[in-house]
Each structure stands twice: as C-alpha cells, then as structure tokens.
C-alpha cells in the first residue's frame, strides 16, 4: 500500500543522511549543520502521512475530537487526573493551532536536537573528524528510529531528553538539579520514561564521591517523596508494564532483528575494548547505566514493545562508547565492518522496518 510514496520517503531519508554526513566531515561548524539537518527532518515530519492504524492517526483523531473542543477548565480537570500532564498540555496547545503536523514536527525537533547535541560533544571530546565523523553519523541514524519518533511521539522524545540529561551530567558534570525540569517533562510524557528516570535517580548516589554524600542523596529523597505524595502514580508504572505483558503482545520481526544486530554489535565492541571503557570514569558510569538497560532488555526479550523501546534508549546511552571506539580505530577492516553493519541496518530499516512506512505525500 502506497509503495511509491514509501519508496520516495525512504530514499529521501537516505539521501539526506548521506548528504549531511558528507557535509560535516571536516567542517568546524558541523554542529550548526546538524541543527539544520534536524530542522529539515522535522519539516518532513510535519508533512508525514501515517498509514491507517498507526499511532499518529489515532492521536490526530484524539486531537480533533477531544482536545480541539476542550476549554481551559476542562484541561485543568484533565491535568488533575492525568499521569502524563506534559502530553495533555502539548496535545491541547497543538489542537488549538489546527495544524496537527506540528506534533510530529515538535517530537522530531526535540529528539534530534538532543541527539545531535550529544553527537557534537562526543566528536569534539574524542577528536572524531573526517571519515570517522561521516561514519559515526551514519551509524547513529541507521537504526531508522525516525518514523517511531514522529509516529509514536511520546516515548522516543522522552528518552532523547533523558539521554541528553544523563550524558551532560556524566561527561560535562552538569548538575542533576538543573535538569529536574527536563526530567519532569520527560517523566510526565510517558510512564516508561518515568521508570527509567527513577532508575537513574536510584543509581545516581552510587556515582558520587563520598564527600558529596548529602548532595548525592537528593535523588533518592525525590524518589521517596514521589512515592509518598503520588503512590498511584508509581503504581501505574507497574500496572502499565503488566498491561503490556498481558495485553499488548505483538512482534514486528524486522525491527526485532535490527535491535538484536545493533545491540550484539555494541556488546561486542565493548568487550574487545573493555579496558578503555573501564579506564575512563565517564564511560564507566555511562556503561553502568547501559548495563542496567541491557538487563531490562534481556528480561523482556519476549515482550517486543518493552524490549524495542528500552533497546533504543540503550543505543542512545552507548553513543559515547561507540564514539570512543571510533576514535581509537585506524583505517582498515574495523571501519569497513562498521560501515557494512550500518548499511545493512539502514537497508533493513528502509525496506522492512519502521522507516519503510515513511511517506510525506500521496500520488493522486
């Protein structure tokens, strides 16, 4: 269905990726170029036409039928009984513009600005340039998360915000306290994101020096306060997980294969370069968080929805480790292998995976 349009969509994605990957190779202003890339992807997202039955189609119907006629008093009542107030506010505001394409546009822009910010910082830290920078961007974008970002809206956007916060706290020593507003928005977008944030807060004290123990205990205090003040909110997380396991049993095999390939490759890279990972305190902390996510993936390997979503966040959290790996490589078979794996993943995503469903026009 809509084969011509989907082929054009996948080819457009591939051409943009190759063009911007080449453009940033040795350009000192590559961060600005990436932001232009993010904007172009977001503009395409604005015109994205979902297939019947896709999440975005149902969301658009909700915007039209439920949020558009809603007044402020009704919105406040909704927020008082909602576990995802950030999403409710976003849906309400966009419904009033009558331009529903702003929803995937916003999700895409937030996601890629977050990811490209991490990407740019890693390139500068590890002096990744030339062919390595070209390959690094292709590798990051090959998973084809794009359609999931602009179609499902909530989860991937929240995960990108979490990855942005965790990276800057560990590598740039930013304060977790300053990131609390971002964590709040992400946690109130999707309950899976809130669960991940609670894990982050729980392990945060383990990664702080003893002389900062009082400051390190702040996240645990926040967790306790959340549970005391909002017990139903926390219980809803576990209810949602149980609901997915009992009622949402589906499997999208190509995407499962993609996630298995990329995860296995990342694990292999970390194993053969373990001493570099463990000798760098920042990479060590990042890897600790990634290992927890990997454990969740393994436990839920038979639950596609949980496995795939956590797998995507696991991929994002491992971006610094893959950047370090690239910085150590010399021209040769290892770079060739990475390029081949990226090409295979991108091909599967474009032909069989989520990316194959992307279209931004329909032939009349």
Order of helices and strands: HHHHHHHHHHHHHHHHHHHH
Mean pLDDT: 86
Would you report the number of β strands? 0
The shape, in one word, is globular
Estimated helix fraction? over 70%
Largest sheet: none
Low-confidence stretches: 241-245
What does this structure look like?
This protein is mostly helical. The chain is built from 20 helices and no strands. α6 packs parallel to α9, α9 packs parallel to α11 and α15 (253-272) packs antiparallel against α20 (333-351). The longest helix is centred in the first third of the chain and has 24 residues, at 102-125. It starts with a helix and ends in a 13-residue tail after the last helix. Residues 241-245 have low confidence and may be disordered.
Give a short summary of the structure:
This protein is mostly helical and 364 residues long.
Keywords:
single chain, 364 residues, mainly alpha, globular
Which SSEs are present, and which pair or pack?
Layout: H1 3-23, H2 30-46, H3 55-67, H4 72-80, H5 85-97, H6 102-125, H7 131-141, H8 146-152, H9 154-171, H10 180-187, H11 191-203, H12 213-216, H13 218-229, H14 231-247, H15 253-272, H16 274-279, H17 281-299, H18 304-317, H19 319-328, H20 333-351
Helix pairs in contact: 1-2, 1-7, 2-6, 4-5, 6-8, 6-9, 6-19, 7-20, 9-10, 9-11, 9-17, 9-18, 10-11, 11-14, 13-14, 15-18, 15-20, 17-18
């Amino acid at each position: 269905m809509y084969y011509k349009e989907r082929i054009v969509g996948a080819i457009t994605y591939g051409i943009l990726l190759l063009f911007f990957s080449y453009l940033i190779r040795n350009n000192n202003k590559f961060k600005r170029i990436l932001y232009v890339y993010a904007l172009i992807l977001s503009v395409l997202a604005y015109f994205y036409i979902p297939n019947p039955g896709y999440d975005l189609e149902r969301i658009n119907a909700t915007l039209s039928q439920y949020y558009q006629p809603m007044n402020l008093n009704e919105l406040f009542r909704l927020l008082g009984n909602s576990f995802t107030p950030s999403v409710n506010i976003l849906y309400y505001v966009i419904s009033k513009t009558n331009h529903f394409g702003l929803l995937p546009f916003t999700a895409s822009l937030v996601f890629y600005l977050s990811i490209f910010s991490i990407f740019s910082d890693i390139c500068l830290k590890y002096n990744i340039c030339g062919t390595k920078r070209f390959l690094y961007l292709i590798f990051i974008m090959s998973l084809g998360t794009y359609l999931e970002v602009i179609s499902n809206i909530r989860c991937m956007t929240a995960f990108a915000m979490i990855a942005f916060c965790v990276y800057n706290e560990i590598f740039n020593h930013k304060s977790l306290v300053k990131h609390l507003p971002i964590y709040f928005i992400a946690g109130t977008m999707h309950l899976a994101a809130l669960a991940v944030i609670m894990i982050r807060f729980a392990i945060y004290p383990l990664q702080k020096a003893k002389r900062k123990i009082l400051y390190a205990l702040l996240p645990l205090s926040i967790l306790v306060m959340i549970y005391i003040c909002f017990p139903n909110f926390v219980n809803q997380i576990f209810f949602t997980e149980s609901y997915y396991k009992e009622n949402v049993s589906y499997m999208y095999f190509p995407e499962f294969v993609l996630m298995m390939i990329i995860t296995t490759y990342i694990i292999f890279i970390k194993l053969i370069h373990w001493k570099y990972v463990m000798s760098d305190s920042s990479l060590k902390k990042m890897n600790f968080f990634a290992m927890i996510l990997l454990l969740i993936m393994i436990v839920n390997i038979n639950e596609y929805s949980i496995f795939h979503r956590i797998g995507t966040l696991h991929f994002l959290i491992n971006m610094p480790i893959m950047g370090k790996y690239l910085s150590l490589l010399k021209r040769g078979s290892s770079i060739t292998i990475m390029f081949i794996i990226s090409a295979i993943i991108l091909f599967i995503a474009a032909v069989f995976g989520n990316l194959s469903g992307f279209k931004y026009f329909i032939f009349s």
